Amino acid sequence: MQLEQPSIENMEFMLQTLAEKLQVVNRAIMDVEDYNIEKYEDLKWMYDLVISKGHLSASETQAFINELAAIRK
Questions:
Q1: Residue 61 · residue 23 · CB < 8 Å
Q2: To 5 degrees, how large is the angle CA 29–CA 33–CA 36?
Q3: pLDDT tens, 40-67?
Q4: Are the C-beta atoms of 35 and 43 separated by less than 8 Å?
Q5: 3 state DSSP class of 21
Q6: Residue 38, phi then psi, degrees to nearest 5
Q7: CA–CA separation, 17 vs 50, rounded Å?
Q8: Which of 40, 62, 63, 61 has its CA nearest to residue 15?
Q9: Rounded to the nearest 5°, which phi and psi values hold at 37?
Q10: Cα–Cα distance between 64 and 2 in angstroms, integer?
């Protein structure tokens, strides 16, 4: 998937992937409708970092979830 172009579909893909990687229990915080397309670059940065890192510690996982909450509408 080409994620360089901001789109709702790309955001939804990244959020679903992040939910899996971060093992998010409350998937309601990953609803694409709660994110503004203007924050696409922030979301893409987090996605790229999580994917490249592979395994995250519990504190890193919590930090990413907090960051996701911060960029929600």
A1: yes
A2: 95
A3: 999 999 999 999 998 899 999 999 999 9
A4: yes
A5: helix
A6: -65, -20
A7: 10
A8: 40
A9: -60, -25
A10: 23
